[in-house]
Specification:
153 residues; mainly alpha; 6 helices; two-stranded antiparallel sheet; 2 strands; single chain
Amino acid sequence: MPPRRQPGLSPRAALRLLAVLAGFIAGGVSAWAFAPGEPLLDVTDVATLKELESKNYRFADAIGAGDADSLASLDEKSAVYRNLASTIAADVVALRAEMKANGRPLFEVTDGNVGRVMDLRWLRSPYARYRLVGVVNRIDKRDFRSRRAAKCA
């Protein structure tokens, strides 16, 4: 019998939310930072990313908790983030149980990327925050933008 899921976002919905947020940020960045017609594939320049964060292109801003300065604060101020963190935690707990049932070892510290255990306290830590580390233009989604604009006109 599969484990019961907590109410809230499914993993697929959570990933879709993150993709939408990334697209929202990328769309705003291309309009703000680059000349029209100039191709943009990705932005990884640290100074540019810091400037974008200072202009409210942060994860916390995208989910309506702009003044959150840590994951603990984000958890306190945003139901969307609480739901996302709970979904991730439930999935990790289920994965741990599955790995244990299948005899796969789990390690708190490992030299490789095999069997590493995520410390779920980081999802709500006062010492952690999300940083903008890149912006990628999803050119494959361009046709959706034009359809959405036509509906809004």
